[in-house]
Amino acid sequence: MLTPPAPTQVRRHSKEASPMTKTVRSAVVAAMIGAAALGLVGVATAASGPQEQQVVNYLTGLLQDFDAQAGSLSSLDDPAPTQELEATTASYSSGAAGTGTQTVVVKVYQNLGAAPPATWFKAFSYDNAAKAPVTFGTLFRAGSTPLEVIAPMVARQLSADAEQLITIDPAVGLDPATYQNFAVTDDAVLFFFDRDQLHPAYGETEVSIPRAALAGLLTPGL
Fold this sequence. Notes:
This protein is about 25% helix and about 25% strand. It is α+β, with helices and mostly antiparallel strands. It folds into two domains: about 10-135, Heat Shock Protein 90 (2-Layer Sandwich); about 140-215, Actin, Chain A, domain 4. It has a five-stranded antiparallel sheet. Strands 6-7-8 form a three-stranded antiparallel sheet, with helices on one face. The two termini are about 10 Å apart. Mean pLDDT is about 80; it is low at about 1-30 and about 35-45.
């Protein structure tokens, strides 16, 4: 089943780096990924499930990388463009609790000012029955060729959304690396694509592939 996304959000703006503001930001982040990750105490942990440490590590690294790239603050004499980092999470699940799958999808928006903003996804999927992560390789039966089914459906969905023909380069559309961010539900497999990943100038998007279309391809139990 699809758990309605009640997104948890992390924001950081590089122009608001007074000690007080930075403490507030850190507290917000800690409420999302766990106080211990940022050395704070007395802040509740919002992340949960077997992927928790992976999500903690990813978000912590994300914030550290942004701070390293954002550069110095602007001044009246040397104004700098606004630099922003925003991360939201959504949770998905399939099957029965304890034996099905769980996925946390992190959506990241980053604007460093000097280049066009970037938006990307990072998904963490877990098989509760096998007690192991679910990767694109383990999502499908060994020896199967799921991209022969998935790639045309993705292209059709993009074309329908854009109301014009969208052609995906086969080097992208038939590359398993393109489909690493996904979530499994009882009805579909959702694939998440970064901005410009599938086609130049095409924004970030998600495509739902019905499970019925993948019958015989998915690994049993997922």
